[in-house]
Structure formats: structure tokens, C-alpha cells
Amino acid sequence: MTRLKETILVSMSIGCFILWIMEFRRTGNFGDHYWLIMLCLAFLLGFQYVRYQRKQKAGDQPAVPLRDKPSTAPKPGKKRKR
């Protein structure tokens, strides 16, 4: 069900963006159809939120793991004691 939500949100975002482009070409004015581009961004943010919630529920780890402990390797530019 959540994948269906994601698909619908992405489709709505793409649809709003296409409508915005078509209306911009028709009128030549950004300001008249500003609400379409904002609706497009709202659907994109909704998609990211739903996807994040799904991944968090499933227990998926982020693509880049976070470090818990600082590295024990010496920092560049500092000399090691011998």
C-alpha cells in the first residue's frame, strides 16, 4: 500500500510540473502559475516523507552508515609519538 502512495505522489508531482511548464509557455508569466510549482514541490516532499517512514518501519539502515566512535587513525598533519 505504501508503494502505491509513493507512486501516486511521484506521478502527481510530475503531472503538476508538466502542467506548470505548459501554462508558463501559454502565458509567459511565472507568477500566474506559481501555485503549480509549489504543489509539485509539496508532492515531492510528501513522497520523501512516506518513503522515509516506510524505510524506518522496515528497519532499513541508511546507505552510508553513521560512525558511532571516533576513528583511532591519526589525523592528517599530526605526527605520531614513537
Strand content: under 5%
Quaternary state of this entry equals single chain
Q: Structural class, judged by helices and strands? A: mainly alpha
State the major sheet.
none
Radius of gyration: 22 Å
Number of helices: 2
**Low-pLDDT segments, ≥5 res:** none
**Mean pLDDT over all positions:** 83
**Shape estimate:** elongated
Order of helices and strands: HH
Share of helix, binned:
55-70%
- Distance from first to last alpha carbon: 60 Å
**DSSP, total strands:** 0
Which helices and strands, and how do they pair?
Layout: H1 2-27, H2 34-58
Structural account:
This protein has 82 residues and is mainly α. It has a domain at 2-57. The N and C termini lie far apart (60 Å). The mean pLDDT is 83. The radius of gyration is 22 Å and the shape is elongated. The protein has helices spanning 2-27, 34-58. It is built from 2 helices and no strands.
